[in-house]
Prior knowledge:
The protein has two domains: 2-148, no CATH class; 186-345, Histidine kinase-like ATPase, C-terminal domain (Heat Shock Protein 90, 2-Layer Sandwich), CATH 3.30.565.10. Helices cover 67% and strands 13% of the residues. The protein contains ten helices and seven strands. A five-stranded mixed β-sheet has the order 2-4-5-7-6. The chain crosses the membrane at residues 12-36, 48-69, 76-98, 118-137. Pfam families: His_kinase (PF06580). One of its GO terms (cellular component) is membrane. It comes from Sphingobacterium paucimobilis HER1398.
Amino acid sequence: MASALFKLKSKNMLIHISSWTIFVLYFLVSYFLLWWEFHPLKVNPMEPAIGALAITACCYLIFSSMQFYMPKKNQYLKITIICILLTILSLGISIFSLTRFFDSTSINHFYERLPYRFIINFLLLVCVMIINIFWNIQEEYKENKKRKEESEKLVRDAELYNLRQQLQPHFLFNSLNSIIALITVKPDLAKKMTFQLSDFLRGTLRKDDKQLIQLADEIKHLELYLEIEKVRFGHRLNTTFNYPEEVLSAKVPSMIVQPLMENAIKHGLYNVTGDVLIETNISLELHMLTIEITNPYDSDQFYNAKGTGFGLTSIQRRLFLIYGRTDLLSVRKTENKFTAIIKIPQHD
């Protein structure tokens, strides 16, 4: 509201400055030409002043009318007619004033120079009209650009929200299935897992309104997720985090690492027998936070070849929507190791 009011005041001030600048220049030029023609006789400044006031009044009419009317393309004839009418009006005001307050000599001189005055006034008003049209076009362009940016931001935020919501049901269904399986066999573990799942989902809802959070908060949320998964898989699931303390203050998109960890657990435990270690290595160098999650996998297993890769695709899309880059997610495969690498730019 304050910005719009300031903009309105600035535009009105610019209109006044422009109009009175035209008045001063028109008066000085008219007075100089009269002085040049009649010197050493004394020139009455009222005549050029009346002409300057008339042309200034017409400029105000253009500025005020163009705030409510914007000529469309190819309406040059209409603009020309408007300028001709305003030119006639400015000369009519001058003629009316001269017949009322000046002698016949001044009136005759005015009529002798009438064609030149008509051309000068017409060209001046055309210039004012063109400047005003370009001014309005520029303002309209800025408004359209602002609305477009706001619309794109709304679409981007909606897509980000949609991507996050698509990632949650898969994990939620798996956890609920595990709770159902544990209810009769291990009711205490089922109860524990239910509380952990409740805390995890509550934390997820709290972060919906925060696009970037500290890495320390993301790791805490990730550890809560891993506790739920360890209830499901027992001693088979082992995790380790390696990072220096200074990276904990880095900013990351909320829940950007959890889908990578879920992907690592999915491909690491479902196709590998025995205990599994999932390693997470985090480093910060040259304003770029790098997170690497490594899990074992069997390259010969059909399950791995058939994966949809939706988790990685959605993460890459989120990173593009937030940072505008497509090179922030990559994978590295060896004979029995799979590493997902995510890079998060750290802006000052």
